[in-house]
Amino acid sequence: MSKSELITLPKGEAVYPALSRPDTKFNDLGTYKANVRLKVDEALPTIKKIQTIAKAHLGKAMPAKDNKVWKYETDEDGNETGFVVFTIKVNNKLSKKTGKVWDRRPLVIDGKKKEIPADVNVWGGSVIRVQVEVYPYNLPNKGINLQPTIVQVIELVTGGGKGDTSAFDEEDGYEGEEGSDADTSGFDSEGDGSADDSDVDY
After folding, report:
1. How confident is the model at residue 137 (pLDDT cuts 50, 70, 90)?
2. Region Disordered: what ranges (predicted)?
3. What is the pLDDT of residues 141-156, one digit of tens each?
């Protein structure tokens, strides 16, 4: 199997995220989601990187505009909107060694790189930046998916609607009131990396 690689996407709009609690609609153990909506020109460098990995693993490029990893957004008339939505998700799994659920919630941090508590709900429309593991898999068929490792919340939209972000500039972004310093060394860099998943099936 090809080696996984870490890529950090540009900041974009969160689309139906599930970061506080996993979504159990299609997976009883839960799925964490950090889908991101980007302008096409901002998305193209990331698409190019993923296509390089896809060619090495699949022997060919993925469909250019509609596949399991990204999709060019269209309006109700089928016209492209100028945006791309990346599908970024990771499933909780049962450990073969312990029989317990492996909770695979990504690290969620604020603009100061401090961890955001799980009780803070990140809603769609929030501005986020996501580091993903580009994970090549072989079963049941060969493919590639994007699994979130770190999610930085730059502008928070939560339960009451869009919050007051006037105190934050673009560089500082959202800063949570709680949470400890998180180990985010290398968050702004890109390189190889993968979780120790020897006892878990993807």
Report:
1. very high
2. 162-202
3. 999 999 999 999 999 9
Fold of 5-179: OB fold (Dihydrolipoamide Acetyltransferase, E2P) (2.40.50)
Size (the chain), residues: 202
Record the tokens describing residue 72, joined without a space. 């060019």
Domain parsing of the chain, residue ranges: 5-179
